[in-house]
Amino acid sequence: MELVKISKVIPNENNPRFIKDHKFKKLVKSIKDFPEMLKLRPIVVNKDMVVLGGNMRLKACKEAGLKEVYILKADELTEQQQREFIVKDNVGFGEWDWDILANEWDNQQLKEWGMDVWQDSDINLDDFFEDDTSEPKEEKQKIVLEYSDNDFEVITEKLNSLEGSKESIVWKALIKE
User: Fold this and answer.
1) CB–CB of 159/165 below 8 Å?
2) Does the domain at residues 2-88 carry the CATH identifier 3.90.1530.10?
3) pLDDT tens, 68-109?
4) Where are the domains of the chain?
C-alpha cells in the first residue's frame, strides 16, 4: 500500500457501478468526517494505475478536496481477473441482520453513515391496507408476513397475483431490504 497523488489515479471508464447523487453526497461527507477510513480501505489499482476497486471513493475523494489517496496495486492480476475483481468487489454477498441493527445500533448514526434505515419500528399492516377495500385484504397481509424474508420482487409478484393489489415502497420496509 502506498500514498500517491490523487491525480495519478485513473478512474476506470468501464466501471459498471454508479452512485446516485444523495448517496454520493453521503460518501463525500463520510470521507470528510472520517478520512482515516481510506487508509484501512485503499483504492485498488492495476499496474497502469487504473482503478479496479474504489471508483466511487476516488470520485468522492476528489470532491472532498483530497490531494492524496492510499492505493493498493494489484499488478499481478490477469485481464480476466481484473474484470472479475471489478464485479466481485461491488457485489454484496451478505445481508444485514435488521434485528441487531435495530436493537444495538443508533438509527441516526446508521443513517449518517450512509445506510438506508427504516424510521418507524411499529409496523401495523392494517395501516398500509386501510384504503384497500378489495376482498383479499387479509390474504395480502398473510403474503407480506409469509414472504418477509424474500425480496421486494417476490412479494410484489405474489401481491400482483391477487385482484386489486397495489405496489408500494412500504413492502421494502416490511421485507427488511
Assistant:
1) yes
2) yes
3) 999 999 999 999 999 888 888 877 656 667 677 777 777 777
4) 2-88, 98-174
